[in-house]
Amino acid sequence: MKIKLVLIAALSLLSMVHLFAQGLTGRAYYKSSSAFRFEMDSSKMAPEQMAEIQAQLKKQMEREYVLSFNPIESNWKQVESLGGGPATASSGGMQIVINTGSQDRVLYKNVADQTYEQEQDVMGKEFLIKDALEVAEWELSDETKKIGNYTAQKATYSRIIDSQRFSTGMTEMENVKDTIQVVAWFTPDIPVPHGPENFFGLPGLILEVQSSGRTLICEKIELNPSAEPVAIVRPKRGKEVTREEFRAMQEEGMKQMMNRYQGKPGDGNQFTIRIGN
Q1: I need a labelling partner for 242 at 20 to 30 A (CA). Which of 100, 114, 133, 220 fits?
Q2: What's the whole-number average pLDDT of the chain?
Q3: 186, 146 in Cβ contact below 8 A?
Q4: What are 87-131's pLDDT values in tens digits?
Q5: Residue 182 to residue 180: CA distance in whole angstroms
Q6: Are 237 and 119 in contact (CB under 8 A)?
Q7: Which positions carry the signal peptide feature in this UniProt record (predicted)?
Q8: What share of the chain is helix, strand, coil (3-state, %, to 5)?
Q9: In this structure, how many other beta carbons lie within 10 angstroms of the beta carbon of residue 94?
Q10: pLDDT tens-digit series, residues 32-82
């Protein structure tokens, strides 16, 4: 049975009042994995070569992150590692490079005033997005499972977003509708409304998220660490913009890419770019 989560804001505020008295802080460490399809003209690459490249990319696109939090604030960033650069794979003389983003970017969320700050870049220029958090209409389920030492409860939501797509051979961008479906698992044992990336707003720390073929799962939690107290870092780099201003810059970058490849059929090695909210 699913229960519509209508009073989540009030529940979160009540939890925060209680947590302030407790002074709860912590760090949660997550690992990401991606399931994606790699497709190419079969006359240009054999199926076994495509499978080899897909396996290489899947392994390299695994990343580790840390979520630092107190009752009302959190920051999210990738754990520094030697393998944090672009994902690369090669087979049969072909090389694929996927830029997975800079590992030193910070995402800051404040659930009390419902705002976020995030470092991003477009076409080599750095920006600092500051805007309101997008509140999800979570639905709670009575389904539970164990994640590490914690009992986690299932929550879901879905929404339709506007996206734009461009592929080699096209003469203009295509406007499309995407349905985003999210499955999250949170634990009431850690009553903070935080979660990885942009996910938040449940009556407990989100330990696992599945969305768009990507999974983030928590592997370790430190609560009230005394040896190294939790410090919430806020992003500082880049020109300050809103979410819509940044999206407009993404679209402009996409148009420049489109103009470069406009109408070119290529040699059978097609690529597609898609951007959304």
Answers
A1: 100
A2: 78
A3: no
A4: 555 555 555 555 555 567 899 999 999 999 999 988 788 999 999
A5: 7
A6: yes
A7: 1-21
A8: 15, 45, 40
A9: 14
A10: 987 655 555 555 566 666 666 666 655 556 789 999 999 999 999 999 764
Distance in angstroms (rounded) separating the CA atoms of residues 254 and 120? 16
Distance (Å, whole) CA 271 – CA 277: 21
CA pair distance 103, 89, nearest whole angstrom: 20
CA-to-CA distance for 256 and 273, rounded, in angstroms?
12
Q: Does domain 2-160+183-242 have CATH number 1.20.1090?
A: no
Assigned token pair, 154: 């299932």
Within its chain, how far is the Cα of 273 from the centroid?
A: 17
Q: How far apart are the C-alpha atoms of 219 and 148, rounded to whole Å?
A: 7
Q: Is 170 helix (H, G, I), strand (E, B) or coil?
A: coil
3-state secondary structure of 257: helix
Nearest Cα residue to 206 out of 56, 30, 16, 3? 30
d(CA 249, CA 230): 34
Structure tokens at 257: 């890419």
Q: CB within 8 A of 20, min separation 6: which ones?
A: 71
Q: pLDDT tens across 125-153, in order?
A: 899 999 999 999 999 999 999 999 999 99
Q: Which residues contact 180 (CB under 8 A, 6 or more apart)?
A: 158, 159, 160, 161, 211, 212
Structural Rg of the chain based on CA atoms? 20
d(CA 76, CA 209): 14
Strands 239-241 and 125-132: parallel
pTM: 0.75
Q: Any idea where the domains of the chain sit in the sequence?
A: 2-160+183-242
